[in-house]
Amino acid sequence: PVADTYATFRVEVSTAGVATFYYNGVAVGTAMTGAITAATDLTPTIAVSKTATAASMTMDIDYIHVAMLR
Question: pLDDT digit string (tens) for 5-25?
């Protein structure tokens, strides 16, 4: 992602614990098997890691959608 450009990120985790990652609606990378177990509680987290030399780093989040099967 670059500054002033919208991007959509999505992670889907199946009941089998397989994680699939999406960037702007397109699957990227390979599915991650064994990403999680059914007994693990999940908490959505948004973070900015300061690894660049910029004086400050910010992220604008327009919305977060979290859902699960019941």
Answer: 888 999 999 888 899 999 999
Identify the residue whose tokens are 């990120």. Answer: 9
Contact present, 12 and 19 (Cβ < 8 Å): yes
| CA 10/CA 66 separation, integer angstroms | 10
19, 31 contact by CB (below 8 A): yes
Q: How many helices (H) and strands (E) does the chain have?
A: 0, 3
Q: What is the pTM of this model?
A: 0.72
* pLDDT computed for residue 70 by the predictor: 62
Which of the four pLDDT bands, split at 50, 70 and 90, describes residue 29?
very high
Q: Is the dihedral of CA 32, 27, 65, 61 positive or negative?
A: positive
Residue matched to tokens 């991007």:
7
Backbone angles phi, psi at 31, to 5 degrees: -60, 140
